[in-house]
Amino acid sequence: MATESYNIALTRLLKDEGGYTDHPSDPGGPTNFGITLADARRYWKGNATAEDVRALPQSVARKIYREHYWNALRCDELPAGVDYAVFDYGVNSGIGRAGKVLRRVVKLSDRTSVVSDDVIAAAKASAARDLVIEICVERLAFLKSLKTFPVFGRGWTARVNGVRIAALAMVESRAVAPAADEASPGKAVVPAAVPAGTASAGAVIAAGAASAAITSRLHVALMVAASAAFAAVVIFLIWRWRHRAEQEAAVKGLSNGLG
């Protein structure tokens, strides 16, 4: 099952990360297949340049992900689904943060990020579904706290939602929908536009967003109509009160005149 999880996780991650990018708002700088210049220098070529990153073979990226992310977080020993949620978090925000969050959700101290034997045991003894949800909730909260969220937030949100959907399917041994065909522009950077594809997590997210937008517009329209109706009733009541007052005054005046 560990090999199957890794293949699913890596395939989805490579599609999410995409090809070469050097976005000015991305602190990772030149990135290819999600591998930053810093990672390329640390794990591949000590004097790597932006051009080296651009030419980075995918086989090198796969090797780096396996050895320095998946293995470093001991994902082979984690429950299916939890392994993917932790792995993708580690790639997106660093294995240190992912390790601490994993420790926190299994109710262990997060003063260290080490995925130790007691972490593995606690993860196996916990409800995998709950762990996936808690990890993704914490991850999105962290991303929302970043100053670059206004730039990349929509894409990050789509990515985390896609990971959650796929990871929960892995927990329940259901077929995992393929990742969106349109790749993200690099590690820790997801496109502002939510990618869509038939039966993809992106399609589910996009459909949900569209539905939410329609519901929101309908709600606003109903509120406006209700306000207009209320205003009309108030105006009518004021008019009726004034009309009665005028009639009463006229009758009173006529009575005084007759008297």
Q: What keywords describe this structure?
A:
single chain, 259 residues, mainly alpha, Chitosanase, subunit A, domain 1, two-stranded antiparallel ribbon, 10 helices, 66% helix
Descriptive overview:
- The chain is mostly helical and 259 residues long.
- It has one domain: Chitosanase, subunit A, domain 1, CATH 1.20.141.10.
- Helices cover 66% and strands 2% of the residues.
- It is built from ten helices and two strands; from the N terminus they run H-E-E-H-H-H-H-H-H-H-H-H.
- It has a two-stranded antiparallel ribbon with strand order 1-2.
- Helix 5 (82-93) runs antiparallel to helix 9 (149-171) and helix 8 (128-144) runs antiparallel to helix 9.
- It is elongated.
- Mean pLDDT is 80; it is low at 182-221.
